[in-house]
């Protein structure tokens, strides 16, 4: 997507040296657009675990380059397996991370060590190109849902969407998943407006989704996470579209904490609740998301403190809880398939069911 007219992806190989990897430091957005240069697998692991880079498809793509960086140091079998395991362990919930590492290993194990670095950069590049193309396709399929809503209303009526967390282009290699249909609807002139859940505790919605939509000129309003149900009760939400970090073969959806509550409110108010995902986010080995998907527990400090810009323009963190109050920080929850209207994938839309997924992915 474009930033001030310049096209960017969320990860790219440094064009000057041909091997280091560039990402945006998402912990400094929306107030500062900082490009980080990653030169080792440790840099990549740190960027993923501290969420300088985040978003299910993107952490997979960046981890793929992390393995390429590791191979520059040691392309032997033992080191490759150890570094792959280290990168895969940086975050537990998004299946894309494990998928990308397993895909890289499958491609690299048959390759002679002396040829592995070049092969790794090529495979990581393919992962990135495929993600961008899949997300653009998700955009086209999700656009049909928004077009259908627009046709069901008087011409020009505002279509109000709600999204949770950030599943935009900065959470993927390009285009995004939940936001891709919204960008396309806006670009073709549909009157869309987005309610943006702030998404405590790290505020990916307030900081990243609002930044993305504002940069693209998409009308939006940031709201407290707890406001969505009220807006739905008053008919102010026509459609919910969220991203996901892992979907089971039965359609259960792991996503940022708070998604489940939004899905409950949507069902109670008959608001369509759609989940956008590339097939790299489907975990075909898991049936019951609530009992089988590992939920990342992050630091209590993400609850007790909040990041932002102070009156002097400096980025800072302030404490918002008493010194001695404990905090718990599950970073994801699982929305059962029964609460999901449907899934938007690169191959089209389907019900959130095993049969629905198999109509689109019969090879699985
Ligand atoms: C397009 S996947 C985005 C997905 O990933 C986010 O998690 P995090 O910010 O912790 O990486 C969130 O669950 C989004 O829906």
Structural commentary:
It catalyses: 5-deoxy-alpha-D-ribose 1-phosphate = 5-deoxy-D-ribulose 1-phosphate; 5-(methylsulfanyl)-alpha-D-ribose 1-phosphate = 5-(methylsulfanyl)-D-ribulose 1-phosphate. The active site is at 245 (proton donor). It holds the Pfam family IF-2B. There is one protein chain. This protein is globular. The chain is built from twelve helices and 18 strands. α2 (56-73) packs antiparallel against α3 (77-88), α3 packs antiparallel against α4 (95-108) and α5 (116-151) crosses α6 (180-187). The strands form five sheets. A seven-stranded mixed beta sheet has the order 8-7-6-9-12-17-18, with helices on both faces. A four-stranded mixed beta sheet has the order 13-10-11-16, covered by helices on one side. It has a three-stranded antiparallel beta sheet with strand order 3-4-5. With 364 residues, it is of the alpha/beta class. The structure holds the ligand CSC[C@H]1O[C@H](OP(=O)(O)O)[C@H](O)[C@@H]1O. Residues 54-57, 165, 167, 171-172, 177, 204, 242-245, 255-256, 331 line the site of the ligand CSC[C@H]1O[C@H](OP(=O)(O)O)[C@H](O)[C@@H]1O. The site of the ligand CSC[C@H]1O[C@H](OP(=O)(O)O)[C@H](O)[C@@H]1O has 17 residues, from α2 and β11.
